[in-house]
Design brief:
The complex is a heterodimer of chains A (about 350) and B (about 550).
Chain A: E1 8-11, E2 14-17, E3 22-24, E4 32-34, E5 49-51, H1 54-63, E6 69-71, E7 79-81, E8 84-90, E9 98-104, E10 110-112, E11 134-139, H2 151-167, E12 171-175, H3 181-188, E13 196-198, H4 203-211, E14 220-221, H5 227-230, E15 235-238, H6 246-249, E16 257-262, H7 269-274, E17 279-281, H8 289-299, E18 303-309, H9 311-321, E19 325-328, H10 336-341
Parallel strand pairs in A: 3-4, 4-5, 5-6, 10-11, 11-18, 12-15, 12-16, 13-14, 13-15, 16-17, 18-19
Antiparallel strand pairs in A: 1-2, 2-3, 7-8, 8-9, 9-10
Chain B: H1 2-13, H2 17-30, H3 33-43, H4 54-65, H5 69-79, H6 82-89, H7 101-109, H8 117-130, H9 133-143, H10 153-164, H11 168-174, H12 183-189, H13 195-198, E1 209-210, E2 224-230, E3 233-240, E4 243-248, H14 259-265, E5 272-282, E6 288-289, H15 292-300, E7 316-327, E8 330-331, H16 337-351, E9 356-358, H17 367-375, E10 382-389, E11 407-411, E12 416-426, E13 435-444, E14 451-458, H18 464-476, E15 478-482, E16 485-488, E17 493-497, E18 500-503, E19 511-514, E20 517-521, H19 533-544
Parallel strand pairs in B: 1-11, 7-9
Antiparallel strand pairs in B: 2-10, 3-4, 3-5, 5-6, 5-7, 7-8, 10-11, 12-13, 12-16, 12-17, 13-14, 15-16, 17-20, 18-19
Helix pairs in contact in B: 1-2, 2-10, 3-7, 3-12, 5-6, 6-9, 10-11
Classes of the chains: A alpha/beta (about 350), B alpha+beta (about 550).
Chain lengths: ~350, ~550
């Protein structure tokens, strides 16, 4: 269990560090917020002051208003906050995503991972394990059924599927979360197959990625003007909420329309079915089971707090098999991956 | 095994009937007969039994993955399917062998029957070493209980018929009983049509139109014959070349479920085809037809009872005949109804067996008296009246729009439609954990671009055991979820009754119905035969009139 005297404790506003006088990823406005990344379940507008990576701050501003003064230290740059020293380290989840290391004047060093993945991803800074005494890790996919295959093989499959759709006069639709997954998919597409269209909601974050120097293929606005060009041969990337709408049907080709969902949840057959999609591609921005276990080992942490997802199972496994002390950190968000990926799970089990 | 696995994944991935059919056709076209016969056996539920126990599989995966047992349980809960869970937990490094399905069935499935625990473990480990992840999943399903492919036998029949190039009803008849999984049996099944196939071939059923408005609008009452509209299974009884076939309107062969009718049919002359209604009939002084629900329990039984358990229970299955389509091998369908009826009466009288009886003609002096008879239909165990024009021929399906319908069904409750269940959500209170709030749709347009349009929600009218059965069906046939709302495969048909209806801008269908309720679950009716938006519009017109 978390202990009251811990450096970082869960509260009804988020993770609170009293010695430093700041919250990490608060879900209500607070005076000082350290934000791991720009997803809406981690970044809240209306706080007095923000500390986040420069890319995270840019992405937050592109997506929400009410982001006030932000201090943007470089990765690894130490920052004095109250009686603590805080530094950000790349988490590999989406562009700008950070882990937060907190070193008190006395006592164990903590690292809060935020969301992270360990697979290579050309659209964000690569994950680095950070040595610590206490690790607070996410566990969205904290069950051994979730193990990701080779990312390049997933893109080969996706491109081959797009090509076969285009050959049959079918429009290809890829459902992906607007920030992070969409740009990662974009970077993996073979633009020689056909034109790529992006739904409006994706333009803001995609622009920030390109300004940050991330190389992406050319894309066009998926709108009425460009519909004739996209119909039957193009690939449209849009958020899951656009699935099955009148908007998407405007792009229907002669051979119809085929929809795929790109998410770690697609590893399980039932999820593919409930999503009512034609194809599911297994590609996640979260660590898989092996990635979670390996990260715990590489940080050298002796205590591990588990949050966001299958926390109980991962905590119990780590305690039994890895010999670390574990505790579960409650969060307001139950199965955040569900929200993020837009697919409902069976009875809320993430 | 790879081809069969692909079929499994394709069937699993789509809810569109057309795509399932295409996948099945591709499978049966490409698979060699020695494999296709196994594919067919597995698709139709003839899975070899007693292969492996789940416990051996469980122990083996724990050993191979090194995971604790409680974590397997956690994973199983998250996935919901043990075969899939085990496939997901196995370490990678699987093989990529494509071995023929019949070899897999022989060496890795049937070989497990009666094998020692150690041999079972070895056989399973060997299979894991040669199969890729998807084949492993299918393999687990083959050696465990309850292998289901989510495909109706009707669809398998259609696919086989199309590949063999024969009529679907011929294929349906050839598929009666168990087909041995051998290349020879499969080749015989797929052979071109032969004379012997004709013996069982049914005629297309002639369908009635709902009577809208006043019966007096039909003209002179003397031109029309009236019968009870029975609440049973519409069926065609065929006696040809010394053989009997009984077909339901859903074009399912059902003779094996009603052996007493088949036995009585042996007394008919060769070349006789009857159209009528299968009913369960209670004997004795207060005898009469039992409701459709009673009949359904019989339909769901795999094997019909061969003897009566209660000697005092005189309930038995009967065929109430109302038309004669073929006599002495001659097609009578173009003859007027009154001539066919006269011939029918002779045939039934000559047979002299209560199991196949006549549907009586109801005498009445005029429309008014007939309306009084119609109003008493429920007391007689009937749904209303059938009105048949005395000069009408026996057509095909429903009369085309514009033509004068020869048959009308005049139901007691004028406002009923057969609708398709499209979605469900849980009830509240006692029923909070059951899916009891249903959404229903009717067809908008027919043919290729047919679509379902939602028109009513209904909450009540089913028995508790039906609710539970439907709940299980809903859970295993969910195609999409949004919050508590589940969209389901549009497959189940229900007869809905309502008190009235009116045009509505707010409803997608353009029509709002008042107090909709479920009258019964039409398990006998395929979704394609549910009613259309035009039926509702016609009811609306009649309601206004």
């Amino acid at each position: 269990m978390p202990v009251k005297t811990d450096l970082i404790v869960p509260t009804d506003r988020g993770l609170w560090c009293e010695a430093g006088g700041f919250y990490i990823d608060p879900w209500r406005p607070v005076d000082l917020a350290v934000v791991t990344h720009a997803h809406a379940d981690h970044a809240t507008p209306g706080c007095g002051r923000y500390i986040a990576s420069a890319n995270t701050a840019a992405l937050m501003r592109s997506r929400m208003s009410g982001i006030g003064e932000a201090h943007t230290p470089a990765f690894g740059e130490p920052l004095r906050l109250g009686a603590t020293t805080v530094s950000l380290h790349p988490a590999g989840h989406v562009l700008g995503s950070s882990q937060v290391r907190v070193v008190p004047e006395e006592g164990p060093t903590w690292v809060v991972t935020g969301d992270y993945k360990v697979e290579p991803d050309p659209t964000c800074e690569p994950f680095e394990p950070v040595a610590c005494d206490v690790l607070l890790t996410e566990s969205t996919f904290g069950l051994p059924i979730y193990r990701w295959g080779d990312t390049l093989a997933v893109f080969d499959d996706l491109n081959a599927w797009w090509r076969s759709n285009a050959d049959a006069g079918r429009t290809t639709v890829v459902l992906a979360y607007a920030l992070g997954k969409a740009q990662r998919v974009l970077a993996g597409l073979d633009a020689s197959i056909g034109p790529i269209g992006l739904r409006g909601a994706l333009h803001g974050p995609t622009g920030v990625y390109q300004e940050a120097g991330i190389v992406l293929p050319d894309w066009i606005h998926a709108n009425a003007t460009n519909a004739p060009e996209l119909k039957g041969r193009g690939l449209i990337v849009c958020p899951p909420s656009a699935s099955g709408t009148a908007w998407i049907r405007k792009f229907r080709g002669k051979g119809g329309i085929r929809t795929a969902f790109v998410s770690g949840w697609m590893r399980v057959r039932g999820r593919r079915r409930w999503g009512s999609v034609d194809r599911g591609f297994v590609l996640s921005d979260h660590a898989d089971w092996d990635g979670l276990i390996d990260t715990v080992r590489r940080t050298g942490a002796k205590r591990v707090g588990v949050t966001h997802g299958s926390s109980e199972a991962l905590a119990r496994y780590l305690a039994e098999r890895e010999g670390v002390e574990t505790f579960v950190v409650p969060t307001r968000y139950r199965g955040e991956g569900d929200e993020q990926d837009g697919v409902q799970g069976p009875g809320g089990a993430a | 095994m790879r081809r069969f696995t692909r079929l499994f994944l394709e069937l699993d991935a789509t809810t569109a009937t057309g795509e399932k059919l295409a996948a099945l056709e591709a499978y049966f076209r490409d698979a060699p007969p020695e494999d296709a016969c196994w594919g067919l056996a597995l698709l139709t539920g003839n899975r070899p039994k007693g292969a492996a126990t789940t416990s051996v599989l469980r122990e083996s995966v724990l050993e191979a993955s090194g995971l604790p047992e409680w974590l397997l349980a956690e994973c199983h809960a998250a996935v919901g399917d043990l075969s899939e869970t085990i496939a997901l937990l196995l370490p990678d490094g699987a093989g990529n062998a494509d071995e023929p399905l019949h070899r897999t069935m022989g060496d890795r499935v049937l070989a497990l029957v009666g094998a020692s625990e150690d041999d079972k473990r070895r056989i399973i480990r060997d299979a894991w070493a040669v199969f890729g992840p998807a084949e492993r999943l299918v393999y687990h399903k083959l050696i465990r209980g309850g292998f289901r492919l989510g495909v109706q036998k009707r669809l398998v029949t259609r696919a086989l018929a199309s590949v063999a190039g024969i009529e679907p009803d011929v294929m349906a008849h050839r598929l009666i009983g168990r087909i041995r999984p051998t290349a020879e049996a499969y080749a015989a099944l797929m052979s071109p049509e032969q004379a012997a196939d004709d013996a069982a071939r049914p005629y297309p059923f002639f369908l009635a139109h709902p009577l809208e408005g006043n019966a007096a609008g039909l003209g002179a009452p003397g031109d029309w014959a009236a019968e009870w509209k029975w609440d049973g299974i519409r069926a065609q009884l065929i006696r040809r070349a010394g053989q009997t076939a009984l077909w339901s309107r859903g074009e399912e062969p059902i003779a094996h479920q009603f052996p007493e009718i088949a036995a009585a049919a042996a007394g008919l002359l060769d070349g006789t085809v009857l159209d009528g209604e299968v009913l369960l009939w209670r004997g004795g002084r207060d005898g009469g037809p039992l409701g459709f629900a009673a009949l359904q329990t019989r339909l769901n039984r795999k094997v019909a009872p061969t003897h009566q358990l209660d000697l005092f229970d005189e309930t038995r299955a009967v065929l109430v005949a109302y038309d004669l389509l073929e006599q002495a091998g001659r097609d009578l369908r173009r003859e007027p109804f009154e001539d066919r009826r006269a011939a029918l009466e002779e045939v039934i009288t000559a047979l002299g067996d209560e199991t196949i009886r006549l549907s009586p003609l109801l005498g009445a002096s005029g429309w008014e008296e007939l309306a009084a008879v119609q109003a008493s239909a429920r007391e007689r165990g009937a749904e209303g009246l059938m009105l048949k024009h005395r000069r009408s021929v026996y057509g095909v399906g429903r009369t085309k729009p514009g033509d004068t319908p020869g048959w009308f069904k005049w139901k007691v409750d004028p406002y009923t439609v057969d609708a398709v269940l499209t979605a469900a959500q849980p009830g509240s209170g006692r029923r909070a954990n059951l899916y009891t709030d249903y959404t229903f749709a009717v067809w908008d347009r027919t043919g290729e671009d047919a679509a379902l349009v939602t028109f009513a929600k209904a909450y009540s009218g089913l028995e508790q055991d039906e609710i539970e059965r439907l709940d299980r069906w809903i859970r295993s046939n969910t195609t999409a979820k949004r919050g508590p709302f589940r969209q389901v495969t549009p497959e189940q048909v229900f007869e809905l009754g309502f008190e009235g209806l009116q045009a509505s801008e707010r409803h997608k269908s353009g029509i709002a119905v008042r107090f909709p309720r479920i009258l019964r679950w039409r398990t006998d009716k395929p979704a394609a035969e549910a009613d259309t938006l035009d039926t509702l519009r016609a009811l609306l017109e009649a309601h206004r009139a």
